[in-house]
Amino acid sequence: MSMFADIPVEVGVIYEGERIRWQDAQLEFGGPRVEHKFELVRVRRLDEVEDGKITVIGPDIKDLEKKSYPLGIYIEVAGKDLDEEIEGVIERRIHEYVNYIEGVMHLNQRYDIWIRVSKRSFEKGLNSFTYIGKVLQRLFKSELPIIEKIQITFITDPEKVKEKFKEAMEVYERRDARARGLKDEEVDAFYGCTLCQSFAPTHVCIITPQRYSNCGAISWFDGRAAARIDPKGPIFRIEKGECIDPLRGEYTGVNQVVKMKSGGEIQRVWLYSAFGYPHTSCGCFEAVAFYIPEVDGFGIVHRGFTENTPIGLSFSTIADSTAGGRQVDGFHGISIEYMRSPKFLQADGGWERVVWVPSTVLEKVKDFVPKGLADKIATEKDAKTVDELKQFLIAKGHPVVKRWEAKAAEEAVKAAVEEAKLPTPAVTAQIQAPAAGLTVPAGVGGFRLSLKNVKIHAKKVRIIRAKEG
């Protein structure tokens, strides 16, 4: 007899990755329209957990019409070998196990969950959280035997969700803060995660002390704990191997594992850059860093941002440009916690290259932004378009403006050299020295060009050779 014989719909890996469109949904919980939603796992003592207990606080699925609702999934587990270090690992498995249920779609994690139940499965009888709770309990105890007892509470009452949401956010912060003091160079191994391959078949998340999982739910410590309790599971150890490039973050061991786990589709990964061989993106990332060529800087937009970015695109459109396990230059799925890392976009200029961030995110990470820079980064309150963004950056003296000036000067000199047919190598070598001027000897071509401590703003430069005699 199947362990799911009393569940009105089928349960299995075949349904993982199933997408449910709004027109096919009975209702949804969480998602971008809802402020308060979360899933949280807490480890308790054995005598504090009633094994098999499932509680619904607020209206159940069958009591609700087709709308978006707040939701809290609160799971308490106990076992003699369990400790708090494993909470995040168990929590992340909720995403996987809920997606095993026919007609249920689970996206994202932590405070960003989004769950839809299809009309078809509802009509088959999937009309209560009790069924979802039973599936979760049986899968958790089957696949993670160290869980001896488990009880689950589903909260739909808006005030109760809001109240428990505060506790959840405090727990997430404590977990994240624990990993912030450790450096990538101080460990022998990183960890990989393929939990999202049902949605992004070639995506392999690389988790390091200074680069959180894209979903923001798995720290290096979580990865270590998961690999220990389930060595053959979706979270596994990666030997770092040789560091090929410390600035971009390229390691031989990472490349080997990513190549194998992606079926050969991804050959190389630069952990700290959005260009070249950027880290792939799944579909559960918390935010996206996107390159804005008009200002030579990065914007960042998170899943909860409902307006358009200055480039005229929404989060969902930008996310579609980078999701699916692809490497796309200038688009980089990231977690909010990674924005607090000293290695955040390290190879691309880090925070000095970031020009636009939604105000709610900037507020969360401002203590990790270099001193004096946070006020120079635009938010949706300062710039709605690229032109407004340019004016803001100039007015605030953002470091990226100096990049524009240096680039303009270099292009002007290159144009001058091209037209005068002067030897490019000699000119290039001197312009790269920021403190020095540029002088082309009078003996070359019959004239002298000297530039020192200048700012050049020109669309075109012409140098005409003087007539002899």
Describe the structure.
The protein contains eleven helices and 19 strands. The chain is of the alpha+beta class and 469 residues long. The chain has three domains: 167 residues, 2-Layer Sandwich (Bifunctional carbon monoxide dehydrogenase/acetyl-coa synthase(codh/acs), Chain M, domain 3), CATH 3.30.1650; 215 residues, Bifunctional carbon monoxide dehydrogenase/acetyl-coa synthase(codh/acs), Chain M, domain 5; 49 residues, no CATH class. It has a four-stranded mixed beta sheet with strand order 4-1-7-6. Helix 1 packs across helix 3 and helix 1 crosses helix 5. The radius of gyration is 27 Å and the shape is globular.
Strand proportion? 15-25%
The dominant shape is globular
The run of helices and strands is EEEEEHEEHHEHEEHEEEHEEHEEHHHHEE
Alpha-carbon distance between the termini? 105 Å
- The helical percent reads 25-40%
Low-confidence stretches: 426-447
Give the strand order, joined by hyphens, for the main sheet. Answer: 4-1-7-6
| CATH architectural designation of the largest domain | 3-Layer(aba) Sandwich
The radius of gyration over CA amounts to 27 Å
Q: What is the CATH H-level superfamily of the largest domain?
A: Bifunctional carbon monoxide dehydrogenase/acetyl-coa synthase(codh/acs), Chain M, domain 5
